[in-house]
Amino acid sequence: MSLLIKNGEIITASERYVADIYCEGEQITRIDKDIAPPPGATVIDASGKYVFPGFIDPHTHIYLPFMGTFAKDTYETGTKAALMGGTTTLIDFCIPMRNEEPLAAYDTWNAHSEGKACCDYTYHMAVTRFDDGTESQIRELVSKGLASFKIFLAYGGAFGIEDEELYKTLKLAKELGVITTAHCENATLVDALQAELIAEGKTGTKWHYYSRPPRVEAEGTNHLMTFAELIGAHVYVVHLSCDEALREAMEAKYRGVNVWVETLIQYLMLDMTYAEKPGFEGAKYVMSPPLRLKHNQEVLWNAIQHGAISTLATDHAPFDFEGQKPMGKDDFRMIPNGIPSLEDRVNLFFTHGVKGGRIDLHKFVDAASTQAAKIFGMFPRKGTIQIGSDADLVVYDPNYEGIISADTHTMNVDYNPFEGWPIQGRPHVVTVRGEVAVQEGKFVGTVGRGQFISREPTHF
Ligand code: URP
Ligand code: ZN
Ligand code: ZN
Fold first, then answer.
1. Is residue 208 pLDDT above 90, yes or no?
2. Residue 414 lies inside a defined structural domain of this protein
3. Residue 256 — pLDDT band, cuts 50, 70, 90?
4. Nearest Cα to 142, choosing from 119, 158, 112, 122?
5. In a domain, 447, yes or no
6. Residues enclosing ligand 1, CB less than 6 A?
7. Which domain holds residue 140?
8. Calpha distance 263→371 (Å, rounded)
9. The domain that contains 335 carries what CATH number?
10. Where are the beta strands (DSSP E) in 111-209?
11. Ligand found nearest the CA of 124
12. What total number of domains does the chain contain?
């Protein structure tokens, strides 16, 4: 199997030049001007197009039992949707229930992914309980290639952990050189605010926001920073949504805390008015942390361009508007939290970021691909275009114009939060380790080709 991509403008986090890329087997083996097509090679004309490294989504929930239901995508539909949008590697969360064994959860996630993924994937290992029994299993899972943890300061009673467990988890992470990703909202405050709102009869969708205001997220972020600072652990704040939380993370960074920050395409594009739509429509836009006041968007964009925020993810957690979101029709606490966006992240980021003049092309690649590869131990295999890297490539048409719609999307969910939104640019061709998986908006890849990417600890 060989592939030659000719005349594209190669864009990485730091370089920009026109050249041909030749891939033999699964890797890039040559980058040069005017490479003559070897016999039998598949040749793709990339003239007038960009060639980006395959994009990486470091935060997805493809398989997720959550809030009394399951996220809708399967590994087949979710990874196909990822590829359609240019994402060639994703990091899902393997999340044991609090009473479940970590190794059992790992087996469950594998049973859902093995032989079904179309793009490459790996897992963050969630630590939802820390005792002697779980510690040995968590150590074993790191040796199996899961080089990042996840903890929840939110969702008390479900996935959330106590401070003593947080302390022990970060100590272990430090010892093993593993980075810990964290959902930073203070669970006690959320519970108290929710109870007050419900007692006042404030049960509708819009009240979700008021049960998780920015200070709740800022406190969660500060809480994590304090523990990380005292332990010397490396931490990564997932789905940061607002100015207040970013300030806590940046203040800690200036104190020397090893912290990285992720935001989501949803927070850049949508504000809290979406969750306030009349009737039950707002439920399409319920997630945690909630969509924020609009002024936060400029803060987040600037933070991406200047490097305070390293990565752009989706937290893809798809729940149908018919049949799943209505679980919370009479009580916002029961609305399954999540806004699907795996397929649209890259195109929206390009349209509003690059074409909108908010970020440059290098930052676009860095935030949507390279930083995730570096932080989570996949670089330079993933996240860049160089000899020896996996041939995960996105030949991108910057002149394409289209409209996002649930009628045409690949994600297995009955609505699209960006319904009717225009996009300017989309992948022309997407390859997964040398195989063409998407061509002109059609999936042409192979179900089961996606591989589990084993990772080594890197954050000592
Ligand atoms: O609302 C969200 N974010 N749903 C997915 C679970 C999580 O907290 O990441
Ligand atoms: Zn979360
Ligand atoms: Zn999540």
1. yes
2. no
3. very high
4. 122
5. no
6. 61, 183, 239, 287-288, 315, 317, 337-338
7. 54-375
8. 13
9. 3.20.20.140
10. 120-126, 148-152, 179-183
11. 3
12. 1
